Amino acid sequence: MRRRKCRSEPPIIATPGGLWIPRAPCTFRRIGSLGRTIRRTSSMAKFPGGSAIVPPPTITGPTRFRVFVDYWNLQLSLNERESEATGQADFRFPIDFKTLATCLTQHAAIMVGASHFSYEGAMIFTSYNPQTLDGRKFHKWATSWLDGQPGIQVKCFERRPRHHPQCPTCHKPIATCPDPECGADLAGTVEKGVDTAIATDMIRLAWEQAYDVAVLASSDADLIPAVEFLDQKGLKVIQAGFPPLGSHLSRACWGTVDMFAIREEFRRTAAS
Length: 272
Prior knowledge:
Layout lengths: L2 E3 L7 E3 L2 E5 L4 E5 L4 E3 L5 E3 L16 E8 H16 L10 H16 L4 E12 L4 H14 L5 E7 L1 E2 L27 E2 L3 H14 L5 E5 L6 H9 L3 E6 L5 H6 L2 E4 L14
Parallel strand pairs: 7-8, 7-12, 8-9, 12-13, 13-14
Antiparallel strand pairs: 1-4, 2-3, 3-6, 4-5, 10-11
Helix pairs in contact: 4-5
């Protein structure tokens, strides 16, 4: 039997019960022909793939807030609500991304009662169509200017082509709009990977103990499992949304900030 002490960088251990990481100091022994490493002490913590995780540390300093933004979910929701309020069709709400994340952090801090807090940065998740000029321009703007703003990290994904709709009777694909004055391509594109990336980074940064409270700017119900997981581990997630839109996600979160009610605080002006 061979024993060793775990170093400053403890090993990750795969077991049938999930992935484990030891809390030093602890000892292990190797058994079996495959040399599998097994738990020797009870001082162990499990990764998110198992049934337990290292609990969040007791907050002794400022409460740390990190913001996660679903770009198109936010932008399109703002456009729709502003169009309804102003009566202007196809309205595009001008967002000041230099102030958006800090604005949401301040409102979330009030909601959780954190008088002493810090803004730890924002991650913005978006997508673009590489087949169009507008899509390539957007990608350049998102990955250069927006990603270059202090505290902001951008993850930009390619949109995937969507299949043409089919006739419900003969099931033949309909390539273009049947209106002769339109004739637009009906395939379009679909966003892939954004919600998965948001959930992954929320859990990853929680595991790295990089924040105490998450602010999630999205109404996507696909994010509910990630929010519920973080809630079970003692971390608060504040939704930044547009009630009653996204009510299922709102119920899973610890609280909700109404972004439409505070939109003037992050509206981009000519001066900004």
